[in-house]
Specification:
The chain is of the alpha+beta class. The protein has a domain at 2-68 and 83-105. It is built from 2 helices and 8 strands. The chain has a 4-stranded antiparallel sheet with strand order 2-1-5-6, with no helix packed on it. The chain has a 4-stranded antiparallel sheet with strand order 3-8-7-4. It is elongated, with a radius of gyration of 36 Å.
Length: 182
């Protein structure tokens, strides 16, 4: 069975056992990924309903594509800029092109709790350690705030404004006299 899937803005025709390089996907080597955007599915000349088909793949590796040299030049202006780019890729091995989306979701659901348990165990240790460290700081902080409030002097009042400066604008100079011509 084959399927046409869309990922990373591109479309790929895949079948079970194929290896493809796609735009970077989240995950590490060995993780299972479900490609959900199936555009077309079929076997031989017969087409199947793409909404019921799921494609599952295993991440082989995270890699970089070939180097692309970007060279800019403006002639007769001594302007040259050389740069480059290597696209981030994910190498996938298509494990199954199935008729139901329920089977790959179950595999992903089994893998997800294991990861969550691993993340939850260190998080519990951190929460136990954090209150012990934070408790003395919380007790000391309010006492420090009250001491500093008592030691600070009262804020100074603003100086009174001068009366003469605010009443009038400065006087303008008289225009210069023109010399008479004879």
């Amino acid at each position: 069975m084959f399927a046409v899937v869309r990922t990373g803005g591109k479309q790929y025709r895949v079948a079970a056992g194929d290896k493809i390089a796609v735009e970077k996907l989240a995950g590490e080597a060995g993780d299972t990924v479900t490609l959900g955007d199936v555009l077309l599915a079929g076997e031989g000349d017969k087409m199947a309903d793409a909404a019921k088909v799921a494609v599952s793949a295993e991440i082989i590796a995270q890699a970089k594509g070939e180097k692309v040299v970007v060279f800019k030049k403006r002639r007769r202006h001594n302007y040259r800029r050389k740069g480059g780019h290597r696209q981030q890729l994910t190498l996938l091995r298509i494990t199954a092109v199935g008729d139901s989306k329920a089977a790959p979701k179950k595999e992903a659901a089994k893998a997800a709790p294991k990861k969550e348990e691993a993340k939850a165990a260190p998080a519990k240790d951190e929460t136990k350690a954090a209150p012990k460290k934070a408790a003395p700081v919380k007790k000391a902080a309010p006492a420090a705030k009250t001491d500093t409030a008592e030691k600070k002097p009262a804020a100074k009042k603003a100086a009174p404004k001068k009366e003469g400066a605010t009443d009038k604008a400065p006087a303008k100079k008289a225009p210069a006299k023109k010399a008479e011509k004879k």
